[in-house]
Amino acid sequence: MIDFDNRTDFDFDISSLEKIANEFTKKDIELILTNSSEIQKINKDYRNINKPTDVLSFPLEDIPNAPLGTIVISIDKVLEAATEYNHSPLEELTLLFIHGLLHLLGFDHEIDSGEMREKEKEIIKKYNLPDSLIIRNEK
Questions:
Q1: Concatenated DSSP letters for the chain?
Q2: Which domain holds residue 130?
């Protein structure tokens, strides 16, 4: 189940994200949809990086009945990227959710040997989504 905290006016049906999440975990996930100024503050507080970003993931310890973790997404970044890459805001939001979910599941593209990139490609293909964050950075 996704515990959704929408701090924006962006309205969408969360069922497509639930479907993806349920494919990979039975644990709950907290999803926070916010703006660039709030995600910048979170990024500064938790990563000591004082700039807005598109998605942040905060995994929790793997203990019984605990949620998997929290994904925070900036709707401002979603809308910018959707315009820049000519796809829908929901597609971009889904791409960022998948990226965040993979981090919660233990993948880390900054230190792995391409496993996260390959898993992302696999999911993107399955759900017929446009190129993701990692894939766009490869080009």
A1: -EEEEE-SS----THHHHHHHHHH-SS-EEEEEE-HHHHHHHHHHHH---S--SEEEEE----TT---EEEEEEHHHHHHHHHHHTS-HHHHHHHHHHHHHHHHTT--TTTSSSHHHHHHHHHHHHTTPPP-HHHHHH-
A2: 2-138
